[in-house]
Each structure stands twice: as C-alpha cells, then as structure tokens.
Amino acid sequence: MIVRPVQVTDLPALLALVRQAGRLTSLPTSEERLNHRLRWAQRTFAEQVERADADYLFVLEDDDRQVLGVSALTGAVGLREPWYNYRVGLTVSSSADLGIERHIPTLFLNNEMTGQSELRSLFLRPDKRQGSHGRLLSLGRLLFVAEFAHLFGDKLIAELPGRTDEQGCSAFWDSVGRHFFKMDFNHANHLSGLGNKSFIAELMPRQPLYACLLTEQAQAVIGKPHPKAEQALKILSAEGFAHKGYIDIFDAGPVIEAPVSSIRIVRDSQLLELAIAPPDDQAPVWLIHNRRLENCRITATAARQVGDRLIVDRFTAKRLQLQPGDLVRAVPLHPRQPQAVAA
Amino acid sequence: MLVLRPVELTDLPQLQRLARESLVGVTSLPDDSERLRDKILDSCTSFEQTVQNPGPENYFFVLEDSTTRHLAGCSEIVATAGFSEPFYSLRNRHFNSASRELNIEHGVPALSLCHDLSGHTLLRGFHIDPTLVRTAYCELLSRARLLFIAAHPPRFADAVISEIVGLSSDDGHSPFWDAVGKHFFDLPYVEAERLCGLESRGFLAELMPQYPIYVPMLPQAAQDCIGQIHPDGQVAFDILQREGFQTNSYVDLFDGGPTLHARTRSIRCIEHSRIAEVRTGSSIDARGRYLVSNDSLQNYRAIVAELDYTTGQPVTLDAAICAALKVHEGSLIRLIAL
C-alpha cells in the first residue's frame, strides 16, 4: 500500500471514487473538470506551477495498482482570490453603573488564513477503512510537508465539514448565508467546491455578526464538525492540530490549524538510511517517505530503527522505489507509541 | 376651557399622575418626583432665558382646564436632540451586494447605530387624557408646539423630529427589544425604557451594538416591528404626518418605532399659520375652528377657538378667549385652521 502523486491514467478510477464520495470531497464529479485537476496536479509535482496555484493530489494505491483513496494538499490558499473565514471573537457589552455585563460571541469575517496550506479532499473507499490506510492517506501528506517545507505556508489548515441535517441543510447557512446569497446551501457549497469562491467576496456581509442574533439552531452548530469528520479531527488533533476559533463561512464547521514546525510528524521525523532485513514481530508501524517530489512514494509498514538506519522488508523498499543505503524520511505512524531505543 | 401653557412647579403632583398613566416607551416622563421636578425647573429656565441659537433648552407644556385646574395632558420640545450627549437611533439602510459572475444583485437591509439625528429639534413627551384622544384638544396639545416654534424660530433647529412609540404587547413585551436590545442590555423592555426615562440615554452608548444588525437575520416578529407604530401612538403620528412630517430610515433602538422628520420652515403650522390683530368684542358669526396662540414666551398660551377670521383682517375675540390667551385689544395672535 502506497501513497503517490496522482497520474492522468488514474482518471477512470478516481472518477468512480469521487462519485462514490458524493459531497464529501471538494473534488469535481465531472470527467472534464477532474481531468483538468489531475493534469494540474501533475504539473504541480513537476514544480511547474507557483505556490499560489499548487495542488498536490495524492492517491492511495494497493499492491495490485488499485486506487482506494484520495487526499489533497494545496500550496497556499487565498493568494489568487480572497480566502474567507469567520473568526469567533467576543464583544463585551458592559456598564458598571447598571451592573450589566454581557459576553457576546461575534463572528468576524477575515482573510487571516491567506498564504497557509490546506489539507483537503480526503476520501477512502468505505470497504478499505481498516488498519492504517486512513492514517497513511491523511498523515502521508504531513510527512510530505516535512520533507518539502519550503513549498508550503507556515501553517497547515483543514476545514472540517460542519453539521447538516439528513437533507444536507445547514442551520448556520439558513440563518446567515441564505440571506446574502439567496440560494440554498447545497448550491452554494457546490459553487464553492468548484473553486468558484470569488462570489463570496462579492456577496458576504462585511460587518461582524453577533452570534446571539442567529437562530438557536445556527448558534448550536458554530465550530462543530459533522459526525463524519470526527475521525479526521481525532487523527489531526493527535498530530497537534487545534481549533483556534476559525470557522467556515458556509456551514460554520471548524477550521483546524497547526504551525508546520509543531506538527508531530514534522517535528519527530528523521532522515534514516534504509536497510533490508525481515522485520521482527514487535516492530512498530512507521510512516516512510522516499524524499522524492515527482516520484514521491509514502508507505506505512512495520520497521525498526537501529541507530541511523531503518530496517524494513524488501517489499517496502520496492514500494518506495529505493535501494538499501538510500535515505528515507520516517516517523512512527502513531503518536505516543514507545519508540525503539537506539542502540 | 382647555388651555395649553408652560409647565409650572405647582404642576408636579398632577404631572406625576400623567407620568403613571402614560404608555411605556414615552420615555421622557419618569414616574419619579425628583426627576420630574428637575424637568419642570429645566423647562422654567428655558422659557426664561434669552436664547440666540438652539441649545440645551427643554420646553415643557401642559394642557389645563382653566376652571378645574385639572391637567389633561402634556407635551414637550427639546430644542436640540443630543445636545449634551449623542442622540442615538438605528438607521435602516440597504447594504448592496452584487455578483456579476452569478448574476445576483440584491440589497440586504441592516440597522446601524448612529447619532445622525443629534442637533435636530425633538418633539416628545406627548401624553393626553384618553377621553380627549381624537378631539381638537389632542391637535392643540401636539400642534401648539409647532406654533411655539413658529413664534420663536431662533430657539429651534432647521429640522424637527419625533420618535413614535413602537409595537409592544399589553404585558410589556416588545418583539423588537426581545430580538435585539435584550441581548446587549440583559434587561426587560419595560425596565430599559424606565431607565431611559430616569437616566440619560448616555448609558446606551456603552451597551449598544456597534456593528450593523442585518434585518433578515432577525425573527419575523421583530422584523415586523421595524417602523411600526403602537396603536396608542397612531394619533400623535397622524397629527404630525398631516403637518408634513415624514418617516425616514431612522428607527428607535429599543422598540423599532419610526422617526418622523420635517424641515422646520415647511411644517404646515409654521408655513401656513397667520398673524392677526386682536379686536375685543363678541364673535357673532363663527365660521371655523382654529388653533390660536399668543406668540409669547413665558406667558405662552394656546387654545382651540371658534372664530370668524378673514386673512389679513383683524380677528374679534371675546373676553373669555382674551383672558385665556392673556391678550387684549391690539395684541397679535397666531392662528391656523384646524
């Protein structure tokens, strides 16, 4: 099982995957648009595009060359057109004379995430969600950032989908966005997902919004992730991501963020020399990157660190397209798992 | 006879009764003898002072039965709204947004705190005995203020405004307050209005929302209150509207009630009232009802009278009317048809 850059030949497999995912990813379901996105991703990995346009699209592939999942990473948000979030701030309404003190959460429209890099479009086939597949697909991106930090912003962010009802309606949208866009949530979200975000700039209210003036249902979902996003939240939280009060302007889902340098995978990853030997039974699972950009290969497998060397089986070396003695970037896949003590 | 005159300190007990009777939201009448006393003294000073330009003056009038001395109503002119502190209103205006790409263009109304109306002359404190509503005396109580402004133009601003009390339920709930003010003040509507009567409105500044409130985001019941009049405010509203006052984009920040606005010189009572010389005698052939005032300051009087008046001619007033108006042969009076 490996994570690798998407290729144009992945189009049919990816199209099937994206259509299965429905609205869960921001990937287009039209063949033409998806094809365009794949070509763009290829150019990105070939370092032919600027950071502002960089779109790193990865697929998870098994040893039979079947595409099982997809994940993406952008070079930077907001450098081509404004990137909007609300920040949940506070307004204090207070009068000492009257003994009144009201703390009123207030939503401030902002572009503060401009220039940061975004994790997005994660989808794994439901029948493959066991073992380490989800972690490999999601966290592989972090190891990629560790190796190529100069290609990304100071922070990584992820917009988790907000709470919606069974029909896909968002109480937050109904209380806020609907009045300014005069369209339903699914349509707006669809336009946004197509990368058509400039209309937000043109139509959104510029002034802060007092949360207490929203409907109770809308207030209740501010900063709350959709239940389907809770696993992703858990995994990224363990890596050092946190919700600092930024939310999506459509559905109020949380934007979680982490400075790149404080992400566990970035901080703890090491450059080790690949060595081949049969792994022992107690060997922990490591996330391993072959340190290449265009031919990037990332895998998760049992490995043992011995000094400056990382011992893996020969299939792993083959999956990484490496020879013994090559340098890899590696980190234990799970946080807090006791690491092998260097001899 | 019911006569309108400046308030006097001896009116205090009766004014307290009027304050208790008056509707919540007529915030200028505190049910508190100390405050009312201050208000009366302020008014007395204002009538006494020589004034070149509108300042902090407050002219308070009462409607008195000249026989029984019973006070049937009161009304007030504030020379300069917001003279010593900002006069706050909510301005309702559209924030336009357009997207060429999506072919959407629309305006979203939003209420913004402002003190745009500071500096205008303000009519307020209007309260009349319920049995006199929709009578000529109701007109007298309201419009005699305008005749007073006509007689003393340097004392007043170029524009006159009046806030009309907005919708609230019989048990003292204002849907607008519950949806807006309550979040920021943490007080029931009635209590907030009471405080406004007692304290200056300055405390509002500390507590009012500084960012616009987007109207479509408010509950429907609150939206429906914007610019709407309490049934008890309808008469006051109608009188001023006939005088040429118009509603505009400003509403009250507590109850969402409308604000009426007029250029001073184009107010009907001011533009169309006439000056006539008094002849004493008995008016033989009364042809119409008029509002009549004596154009005085401290001795200002206004009444409703049946008169035989021809433009440009002197007008004959009987002894009772002359006494009520404190005028005599050769005095000048101001009048306008009811």
What would your notes on this structure say?
- The complex is a heterodimer of chains A (343) and B (338).
- Chain A has helices at 11-21, 31-45, 133-147, 171-175, 177-181, 185-193, 198-203, 216-220, 230-238, 264-268, 314-319; strands at 2-5, 55-61, 67-74, 85-95, 100-110, 117-124, 155-159, 209-210, 242-247, 254-259, 270-276, 285-289, 298-302, 304-306, 309-312, 327-332.
- Chain A is α+β, with helices and mostly antiparallel strands and 343 residues long.
- The radius of gyration of chain A is 22 Å and the shape is globular.
- The mean pLDDT of chain A is 90.
- Chain B has 338 residues and is of the alpha+beta class.
- Chain B has two domains: 2-83 and 116-202 and 219-269, Gcn5-related N-acetyltransferase (GNAT) (Aminopeptidase), CATH 3.40.630; 273-337, Barwin-like endoglucanases (Beta Barrel).
- Helix content of chain B is 27%, strand content 29%.
- Chain B has helices spanning 12-21, 33-48, 136-151, 175-179, 181-185, 189-198, 203-207, 220-223, 234-242, 268-271, 319-325; strands at 2-6, 58-65, 71-78, 89-99, 104-114, 121-128, 159-163, 213-214, 246-251, 258-263, 274-280, 288-293, 302-307, 315-317, 332-337.
- In chain B, the strands form two sheets. In chain B, strands 1-2-3-6-7-10-9-4-5-8 form a ten-stranded mixed beta sheet, sandwiched between helices.
- In chain B, helix 1 (12-21) packs across helix 2 (33-48).
- The radius of gyration of chain B is 21 Å and the shape is globular.
- The A-B interface holds A 91, 93-95, 97-98, 100, 102, 104, 106, 175-176, 179-183, 191, 196, 198-199, 202-210, 212-214 and B 95, 97-102, 104, 106, 108, 110, 179-180, 183-187, 195, 203, 206-214, 216-218.
Low-confidence stretches of chain B: none
Say how many strands of chain B there are. 15
Strand element count of chain A:
16
The CATH superfamily of the largest domain in chain B turns out to be Gcn5-related N-acetyltransferase (GNAT)
Q: Looking at the structure, what is the overall shape of chain A?
A: globular
Mean pLDDT of chain B: 90
At the first level of CATH, the class of the largest domain in chain B is Alpha Beta
Computed over alpha carbons, the radius of gyration of chain B is 21 Å
Radius of gyration of chain A: 22 Å
Q: How would you describe the shape of chain B?
A: globular
What is the domain tally of chain B? 2
